[in-house]
Amino acid sequence: MAKSSLSQYRAKRDFASTGEPRGGARRKRRRGKLRFVVQEHDASSLHYDFRLEMDGVLKSWAVPKGPSTDPRQRRLAVRTEDHPLDYAQFEGVIPEDQYGAGSVIVWDAGTYRLRGDDAKKKTPEQELRAGHLSIWLDGEKLRGGYALQRIAKGGKGEQERWLLIKVDDDEADARRRPVSTQPESVLSGRTVEEVEEQEREQKSDGGERRSRRRRK
Ligand code: MN
Fold this sequence. Notes:
The protein is of the alpha+beta class. Helices cover about 20% and strands about 35% of the residues. It is built from five helices and nine strands. It has an eight-stranded antiparallel barrel with strand order 1-2-3-4-9-8-7-6. The chain starts with 6 loop residues before the first helix and ends with a helix. It binds manganese (II) ion. The site of manganese (II) ion has 6 residues, from strand 2.
């Protein structure tokens, strides 16, 4: 791959302004388990960014309603640009003048693998290209089988559209609503609102300190 798959990610952001990671060189495939992360992102419209480690980066989808544990719910997932692996730990506020301005928390995190026989025959990269991923999640909130199915190819500025659907297995639960009942970060216990408030307080504290210093 001549061009980094992170070039789109970097072109959209000014790393002097945003606290998001720039990401290093694309890493070689790590041994062991592949990571997944779901970030709640309170941008111009609230959504959940679903990311799977693949090929040294995080393949990403924006899920407006967030993942469901109910197999009857088909959640739209719009493919977005690859993110660096470091992004899996990012929480904070993306500044007003930046792409994706708003508050971000790590809503869920863990590892994933391909399900069943697929794991022996295919790689996640192959399934991604074919437009159908059949995965098993081991997260704190999300567990069990999930399917990601491409329903519309991108191109000409259009993003790929996929559906994220819970597989009807022992981990399925139509009554659970983790998106609304478990809003806290699995990293810090904070909600997106709390992250935003803390950032605002820190900024105003810093402002006061600076003006006090000036008065001396
Ligand atoms: Mn987002």
